[in-house]
Design brief:
Seven copies of one chain form a homoheptamer. The first copy, chain A, is globular. Helix content of chain A is 0%, strand content 51%. The first copy, chain A, is mainly β. Chains A and B meet through strand 3 and strand 10 of A and strand 1 and strand 8 of B. Chains A, B, C, D, E, F, G: Heptamer of 7 subunits arranged in a ring. Interacts with the chaperonin GroEL. Chains A, B, C, D, E, F, G: Belongs to the GroES chaperonin family.
Chain lengths: 94, 94, 94, 94, 94, 94, 94
């Protein structure tokens, strides 16, 4: 991956909806926050709080649930990614 | 459970209204905040404050009262769950 | 009591208005914040601030004045209760 | 006094406007914040900040200037009082 | 002065516009914030931050520039004063 | 200079637009924030954070870029100045 | 570079869209936040938090992705630059 996220940001590749049934997780269309499933591609060094760096609590390869309306979209080598803050990740799958 | 919540989040399975009378707790329809009853299915490691992790004050299996309008809904193996922050939990039943 | 409030929350049983004259406290109807009188039924362990737990400054049995528009209503064994944060309590009576 | 204010709250008895000329302080009707004069009747133990209790900087008996639109009114033994936070007190008279 | 300001408040006597030319400072009528010139009459003990009292950085007798729309007006012995927070003072003249 | 700015404030003399070409810096009229160029005339002692004073990171004589809509205008000895907080200064020129 | 950014600000030269394909990063026009690519030209000394300076996590020469709507535009020696806070930088490329 050529992108290094800053602070507590991570880079996520969204899992297409047709592949989502594998994980057994379904995001209901009627959900209030439109969660989505994705895979962590890169992880920032963590944010600094009171002079100490707080490591990010997910790893490259983790499948995660995140809010659809969070983050910044970028396209790289023909694929779309999302740059998110760790706090926008709800849970790790599996 | 295949979902690991991050930080101070918990995963809750709502108790259907027809089973709620068992616990003796009734959420009045006229209540201002529409509280609901649910069971804790998974608990995050706690949020970090000033470099120290603060453990979540509920456990898997706890029946809790939480606000209806909080959290993110996900569906997994045919069942609906809610990902909530600990601060959205009002009280533990029993 | 079957409800254990979390953090700095307390559970309150409102004192019906016909019993309020005993305490000598009257909440004027014209008051800006509509204070109410109630009795503390259960007390949470206190919130955590900078890694230290801050004990709640009221006890079970205390009669208190609180704001009418604060908190979450629940019904339990046929009686209504209110789950409040300690900061919504104005004063202890007596 | 039968009321014990919590945290950094104080209980104040307003000085009627006909007695205010004694102190020499006049609150202009055209003032932007409508300050008022009152006497401190009870003082809370102080709020907790970073684990330490900060004592309230007024005493029972102090005459103070406070903002008219702050606080919660209660009536007790036929007299009206105001429950205020210390930060709503502007100055001590005398 | 019979007024003791609390925390980081000060009491100011506004300098009438006809006397302002002495100091050489002119507040343009078209200014965005309508600054005013006044003299410090009384100084509070300072606010408490992280358990330590922070002394106020002006003294009785200082001529200061402050924002016109800040503070609480009081009248005392026939003169009008303003109770301000230190943070509403922009600069000391002279 | 007869004005002593408080806390993290500085006093700035705006550089007239006809002299700005000298520095080589041009503020585009279409810019979103309307930056301006000015010279630091006086510097406050710095704000206090957690009991320690944080020195201001500019000096008297520095040419700086600041936001046009920040600060308080004053006129002194026939010249207009601006009282700004340090955080409204974007960069030092030169 | 004649501009020294203050605190946690950086100065960025935007990469024109026709040169962006080199890096392989494409910002989709339909993106919610309109990210852009640029090169770091100057870096501030870092902001101060709790009395300690936090170094900025990018270096001069870094290619970065940042939000289009952040920052202050300046023109210098015929070229346009952007003064940004570090927190407006999403990721470093390469």
């Amino acid at each position: 991956m050529k992108l290094r996220p800053l602070a507590d940001r991570v880079i996520i590749k969204a899992v297409p909806s047709e592949e989502r049934t594998k994980s057994g997780i379904i995001m209901p269309d009627t959900a209030k926050e439109k969660p989505q499933e994705g895979e962590i591609i890169a992880v920032g060094p963590g944010r600094i709080e009171k002079g100490e760096r707080i490591a990010v609590d997910v790893q490259v390869g983790d499948k995660v649930i995140y809010s659809k309306y969070a983050g910044t979209e970028v396209k790289f080598d023909g694929e779309e990614y999302l740059i998110l803050r760790e706090s926008d990740i709800q849970a790790v799958i599996g």
